[in-house]
Specification:
CATH topology of the largest domain: 434 Repressor (Amino-terminal Domain)
CATH architecture of the largest domain: Orthogonal Bundle
Distance between the termini: 39 Å
Strand content: under 5%
Helix content: over 70%
Structural class: mainly alpha
CATH class of the largest domain: Mainly Alpha
Shape: globular
Length: 130
């Protein structure tokens, strides 16, 4: 499987959108789409960012680059572990901002007090107003 397909598959396994991934990579989501489809070559200088943003272990990333990934014995467990690594990377990246922003913590408190539908509506409005 070509590298671009490994990257798309990994992102989908993390259950993150192209928009979220592209935002964290500092590129447009349409460019990420072209990378994932193999329509545009992934620049070498973007590879470390992809590995960091997706929280891919070094050995696994090298195997992806060399197309040496073996079949997973437990895909469900692997997916959960990948998601946990991604969540930990997000936490490490954003925690300083969260700790230093009273407004963000207040927003999160209000969000947490809402039901899922209202929380999604508030988040959508906040993103649109940015």
């Amino acid at each position: 499987m070509p590298f671009h397909e490994h990257i798309r598959e990994y992102r989908e396994q993390l259950e993150i959108t192209q928009i979220e991934a592209a935002e964290r990579l500092g590129i447009d989501h349409s460019v990420l789409s072209k990378y994932e489809l193999g329509k545009l070559a992934i620049p070498l200088d973007l590879l470390p960012d992809i590995r960091r943003v997706y929280a891919i272990p070094k050995e696994k990333f090298i195997d992806m680059l060399e197309d040496k990934l073996g079949k997973s014995r437990n895909p469900g467990l692997e997916a959960r572990e990948n998601k946990m690594r991604y969540a930990a990377a997000l936490q490490n990246e954003y925690m300083p901002y969260i700790m230093n922003s009273k407004e963000f913590r207040l927003f999160m408190s209000k969000l947490n007090a809402l039901d899922k539908k209202e929380a999604k509506k508030l988040l959508t409005e906040a993103i649109k107003n940015n």
